[in-house]
Amino acid sequence: TNPRLCLTAPIEFGVGHVVDGTSLVSAVCTAQGFVFNYSTHTSLLSADISALLLLTGDPAFNYQEHELNERLKRLYPAVNEEETPLPRSWSPKDKYSYIGLSQNNLRVHYKGHGKNHKDAASVRATHPIPAACGIYYFEVKIVSKGRDGYMGIGLSAQGVNMNRLPGWDKHSYGYHGDDGHSFCSSGTGQPYGPTFTTGDVIGCCVNLINNTCFYTKNGHSLGVAFTDLPPNLYPTVGLQTPGEIVDANFGQQPFVFDIEDYMSEWRAKIHSMIARFPIGERLGDWQSVLQNMVSSYLVHHGYCATAMAFSRATETMIQEDQTSIKNRQRIQKLVLAGRVGEAIDATQQLYPGLLEHNPNLLFMLKCRQFVEMVNGTDSEVRCFSVHSPKSQDSYPGSPNLSPRHGATNAHVHNTGNTDTLHTNIFEYAMHASKAKHIKLNLFTNVVYLHSPETSSAVDCVFWCVDSDSEMEIEAEHYSNGVTESSTRIMNGTYKHQEILQADDSSVDDSCSSRQLCGGNQAATERMIQFGRELQALSEQLCRQYGKNATHKKMLQDAFSLLAYSDPWNCPVGQQLDPMQREAICSALNSAILESQNLPKQPPLMLALGQATECVQLMARVRSGSCSFARVDNFLH
Amino acid sequence: SFKCLVEEVTATSRHYVDRLFDPDPQNVLQGVIDMKNAVIGNNRQKANLIVLGAVPRLLYLLQQSSSSLELRTECAVVLGSLAMGTENNIKSLVDCHIIPALLQGLLCSDLIFIEACLRCLRTVFISPVTPVQLLYTDPTVIPHLMSLLSRSQHTQEYITQIFAHCCKTPEHQTVLFNHGAIQNIAPLLISPSFKVRMQALKCFSVLAYENAQVSMTLVNVLVDGEQLSQVFVRMMQRDKPIEMQLTAAKCLTYMCRAGAIRTDDNCIVLKTLPCLVRMCSKERLLEERVEGAETLAYLMEPDIELQRIASVTDHLVSMLADYFKYPKTSVLDHDLKHAHELRQAAFKLYASLGSNDEDIRKKITETENMMDRIVSGLSESSIKVRLAAVRCLHSLSRSVQQLRTSFHDHAVWKPLMKLLQNAPDEVLVMASSTLCNLLLEFSPSKEPILESGVIELLCSLTQSDSPALRVNGIWALMNMAFQADQKVKVEIVRALGTEQLFRLLSDPDTNVLMKTLGLLRNLLSTRPHIDQVMSSHGKQIMQAVTLILEGEHSIEVKEQTLCILANIADGNTAKELIMTNDDMLQKIKYYMGHSNVKLQLAATFCISNLIWNEEDGSQERQDKLRDMGFVDILHKLTQASDPNLCDRAKTAMQQYLA
Lengths: 636, 658
What we know:
heterodimer, A: alpha+beta, 7-stranded antiparallel sheet, 14% strand, disordered N terminus, B: 658 residues, mainly alpha, elongated, Armadillo repeat-containing protein 8 (chain B), Armadillo (chain B)
């Protein structure tokens, strides 16, 4: 057993990280030299566990682990390791008995008799190479060639006999040191490259875009060795004579070969392929599609003035009339300012019947209203506050966006918010993962929008979705995702803090000494009364539509705020964050649009989401080019 | 009606030219602007205007200080447009002295005008019909162009492009270097404009080519705090445009060959070499593959380690075989040209790859149809291909193994002999050099070559003005005479003629002298041959030997000469030529006491042969030499520190004891 392993550490660390208890125990057992329990869960976590086991023991190893994570993230940004973990070491379970592992399962040595080829032994890495790598690379350093230097480096599928050198069997591929031959699922090798021996560093690169493989020796590419490789191959090494020792580098160390340079070539290739996607005669059609996407996006979020300017410049039609846009804009502003009560009133006034038909939405709004009462921002409690309440009239009367908002809008695509956007697009994509047969046509174009009112330019790259593909996505999933993502987009478009500053200095100023309902007794009573009404509404809904766990949770969370003396600094205090208004704001906006027979999410976001999903899907169907066609490469 | 149309066109052209002579300057300006719009993309119109004499008038207007700046600028633009046409257009423009006029225009302070002039100059200078020397006629031009580099991205692009095209000789390099080309152009490598970066890079590649001074300076240049070589390395990144990668690789190659960068530097081994190998890939354009292969051949020519790395990089050896798959026969001229270019580049690269390492040579000859390709390359119509093919063959002929196998199997000597019949000197040098190797005693091709009557040809080579050809000719004869039949030796001596043989013994080129002595030595081996040659040419040979031993020659030459003497001393009758020549014996005595062991050894050998016991008259010779004091010398030499010399002296002494 490795003396650096420590038994207590994993349990402490395990609580937060390890989901499954048995895998942890079994891993600890292995570490202690007990017989390994082949649990079904271990494959996912074994690498992580071994990392955890060593966390406290060896700072150098921690550093290496950190290096590894950073390098893998940089090399394979498209890989979702929760779905397809990357190989990080040799597998102690997936090897022949003549193989010994050491040095965190990175060093392989031969411990058999080595009499003849029947004594050959191999070991596979912990995981197969994910297709989303696009281009995958690992290196093996020959520490010692041993007696005869019969070392093979390569790839093999799961289940291939380990009592063999890589390359000898079906779905097994190898490059052998003694003769420099390549073995492509055959006992007979082909002349391939130079021989290799002690001190040499041999690299193996799998190109998952064209399914080929080439090797490197001491940083020099030796040219293609294999073509038409099957998917899901594991890095594999095989040894055959005593004394043979090799070390693997799955990214723990810088590579001798400049793999990133090779990747850059393929990235450029894929990008130029996308950029040169032929659109032929249909240029005009595509342009109008793009313009409509921009326009509908602006309209959706209520950028009324910009939308109008855009439609004038591009001579496109806006489906929704201007008043309607402004109304929605006004309601959204109320929600985002935390004045949910007023937003509900306005909705009921402008769109009668809407909330009655959407009891869930109404309930969510009311819950939010309660939270805002705690916050002291809802008008129902603000009217009690010392400062004169700002009436609806004094709220930015014109639903027209101020230039400031316009400017912020332009920033969305250029500044920091892209990250949130992407995360949420992924969420969307995961929700939509059940969608089948998504057919996407990718194309790129650039639209420059010069709005005279905002003097800002929107510079976007869009994907257009083949219209019939929408139909194939299950409505439920896609609504979830799209709502979520468009919410976060708004995240960037509104600066809530600034709105509050402008509208209600009392809330803003007293940030450090925030009090329940603004500290007003009457307001607190009003809030408690409102809480009862909300409880009643919940019970009513329950009778009418049956139990709803979401509602229950929502209500519980909201009421929990009252259990703390400082609700802003309590376990459920996050609800009070103005950011939390965005989800409900977006849901309300979508509901209104839907009631007007307009799409409840902007086609642009739909397209973006679908493009992202498509790229993810490519990874699952093992199309490696997805690695270099990432949506975020095109969002600036 | 066609004629009618032509006349009509000419008439409108005439109208344009006429307007240039309008008394109202405003009309002239409008006329020039209209002309500009009329000539764009219209080669016929351009030709017409030139024929009708528009150029001198435009140049006149451009040079007149009374012309408005706008008019002068428009004139430069129209001239630039005319230059964009055919090569004939350029010729006409150059004949009208457009270059001095435009260069004069650069002295103006207006940037727009300067840019128009430069654009036109650029177009003129990059044409192959323009003599580049015109850039250097006026010594003030280069410094002025350097000073204009700071004016705008356009001036940078045009000027660097002009430099890149007009730097063709070491003199040009020096002129540009002395006027600060490196300091002025280096910052342009990080210009925001791709065109500027690219042209600046091209400048450096032409400046550094075979120029140690430039190359040594380049390695020390910093661009924005970064070493120039690192800037070039970044330009070779695989996502950069191919043209940029290739040109950056050329820069580093030239710097390396000029000795400014070591061949084991990572920027060469891990970056430049792989980049050039990539340029040879099938995915690249034909021109890129040609340039890539030629540059790579040049890079690794002197370095076996680079040759070894290249030979295993990306299957280069078999990748090059694809260069031969371009159609050999085509109706299109440029196809044929491409095919020739590809083949010669591949041969060059094979030659460079195989110049030192036996394993690489084996790998090359084992490439599909390689020997056949070389054989057919030797008789191709293009001299460039023939030369490259013979270079390749020469490189491979350094392998004993290949001489014994593939060379013989493919009877390469046949096309080689043919090639030798009537070829330019550069081909002859390579071909005869290869022939030397084919005539080595272990080469199975030696026999058939002898039978093909090559001796006359080789003898004629020894009369060439080119020292390289003389060496190769005599070298081949030397190899041929090694352990040859009496018949062959006689034939060599007959064909060469003693006169020519002795002329070669006084050749100013030491290599020629050495190989000639080598030939003599080979002729004078085995006793019957020695006696026969000496009986017919003994007098002259002894004279020649005397001359060389008395002359100012290197140790190697004298050693070789003493060896000849030793051979002569081994003959039955021939040794009398020495024994009866007291002067020669004194010389031998002198060299036995020489400070150089090699000469002592050779001289002792000679004496040893003379006093050898079992031969007739050995007693008399021993007595004579004892009387002359040789025994004392031999005795002294038995105490020599050099074991060989000591042994040889003892062996000789034993002859007296027996």
